[in-house]
Amino acid sequence: MGVEPFLTSSAVDCVIAQRLARRLCARCREPVEIEEEILAGMGFPFEHAPDELGFHKAAGCNFCGGTGYRGRLGIYELMEVTDNLKDMILRRAPTNELGRSAREEGMIRLRDDGLLKAAAGLTTIEEVLRTVVWVRGRGAKVLAGLCR
Ligand SMILES: [Zn+2]
Fold this sequence. Notes:
18% strand
């Protein structure tokens, strides 16, 4: 963008990314078992992931107009610009190094927040894959596995 690194590092406190996914209808959602291989393809287990996974699928009823979804659900990633990250920005560290460092400091990635919400039965894995940018090959494989 042509912005000097010292301006970014001193003026920015945090960076938020957000996606909106469809929220599963609480009246008709149905529990679903996801195969181990597919879970592994999505990176399960990962840090912050619960031991108990409560994935659900969309069904459809009169309450949700037969879609299986009702309302929206925010999926978020919040990166706090810590002193360490400020130093990295000043040093013009590459984006992937900034991301790795932010994750090491506890940042939950967008895709992981989506998967945590899917594992809590709030939305489906399909919605997370549809709304969150994904590594193409792996995401496509997961989707193919789900749509069998
Ligand atoms: Zn419904």
